[in-house]
Design brief:
The structure holds two protein chains of two kinds.
Chain A (H helix, E strand, L loop, with lengths): L5 E8 L2 E8 L21 E8 L2 E8 L8 E7 L6 E8 L4 E7 L2
Chain B lengths: L16 H4 L4 H7 L6 E2 L3 E4 L3 E4 L3 E7 L4 E8 L6 E7 L3 E9 L5 E9 L2 E13 L5
Parallel strand pairs in B: 1-9, 3-9
Antiparallel strand pairs in B: 2-4, 4-7, 5-6, 5-8, 8-9
The chains are: A mainly beta, B mainly beta.
Chain lengths: ~100, ~130
Amino acid sequence: MAAGPMKIRATLAGGFTEIRVLMTHPMETGQRKDPEGRIVPMHFIQNVTVKLNGKTVIDSQISQGVSRNPVFSFRIKGGARGDKVEVGWLDNHGESSSIEAAVA
Amino acid sequence: MALTLLRPWAALAAWNKEAFGARSAADALKGIGAADAAPSAELVIEAPEIAENGAVVPIEIASKLPGTSSIAVLVDKNPFPLVGKFDFREGAVPFVKLNVKMGETSEVRVIALAGAKSYAATKEIKVTIGGCGG
């Protein structure tokens, strides 16, 4: 399975903005074998960054211990309708992706 | 499926190889500078008591400790216990929800860095079908 599209939603919720983001990624542990019995190499997201109006607010490092097709919820203080939220990832193969949404 | 490669996500902090490559929770804790974390009830873990599917175990973490700048999540009995480390800058709430893999029943250990001190909370999650084979 290759990495694929992302989905994002950012909504105001009583004093904070809730960001829910989905990443399409196999998050291979390097312990699984394919049907021919060959080890499937490690392939997983290592960095996830959340930006609000272009400024980094959350900077994270993750491992192959995160489930396949990672889903995260993050929270930002305050926020206003129309603020721009952007989430991006980088994996151990150097592949990357990002997505942005306006706070609703 | 095409990836968005027009704007490579390059300007990110390095990945902590030492901590993520650690084979024991104790070594992973050393790797993130939290070997002496003190237990805290202000660090709240919401997770199921029993996970039917170890491949997807939802965990929600919130820190009520003033000045929390980072939250780390470990699954003690996984081959590589450290699952993630989330650094919160100004404007972020010290909160994260994610799905983790669990190979077997284990303590889930959460560490928060607040000020210059680290704090810990743990919760045992029982796993009926392990989820580390992929």
